[in-house]
Amino acid sequence: MQRPTVPTRIPGSTPIPNMFGPEKTFNILQWSVTSHRTPILSQTRTEEYSTLLDVFSLPEMLFDSKLYVENKETGFKLEFNALDGLKNAKTDVLQNEGVSGVKVGCAWDTKNINAAFQDGTKTIEERDDNIDWTFTTLYKGSMSIKGSENQPVIEDTTEGVDYERLKRRDPILFYDELVLYEDELHDHGTGQLSVKTRFMGEYAYILLRFFLRVDGVVVRVIDNRFYTDYSKDYWLRETSYLESSYDDLAKKSVNVKEPTLMADPNQLLPKLNCKIKKTVKIYVK
């Protein structure tokens, strides 16, 4: 995403307080966006997460950070946080969404995984406690409408995110980037859930991304891109699931032994195989 320039005041917006502090809020027209940044969870808070999720294994770096967007007229709220992200990393959730066969499709097999990750005491199967060991998540954000038990209306659409508009160098009035959780997979790669946002004078954009790299095995990127024009009563959400094995990337002339390249999802994205791509409208009233 484009890095922020110095914020510019426009009619209908409020200045950004505490621009680089732990929490910041920005208001423009009917919208309010807040980002809350925290240190890595304490042991006590981590144990609370473990109890709430009913799991033992959690990412090494876990944060209470969150980003949320609210419509002050309708009560619509869109939030991104680690706890809900991990709820969508549980094995039963992934299986219900048809993700259970991904390891096989990428030529993963239990014998090879355990050979790579054996720590002398336990194998991957023994570590299994109903959460995916790579912390892969199909999380698409948490939505609600204040004062209503109903979820926002979502419908399929052929309308796409206006990427040409996003490429313009319009002044960025609000920007932030948060890591929700990250794990180094026992020094054999990385799994990270992060969220970025930028609000311009007439439109806003949010990128929720899960990035997985298992060294020598697979690269996976699951993106949820949210886009709205302030004159509209809906957000677009474009979901894409991309994945390729190291062997497949090597066949596409990707230097899989280059650490900097293999740590950069933006560079790898064009080389990954797209398994799912779908766009929906999320109505805010």
From TrEMBL:
Family under the similarity heading: Belongs to the TIP41 family.
Protein known as: Type 2A phosphatase activator TIP41
Alphabetical GO biological process terms: TOR signaling
Superkingdom classification of source: Eukaryota
GO cellular component, one term: cytosol
Organism: Acrasis kona
InterPro entries: Phosphatase_reg/MetRdx, TIP41-like
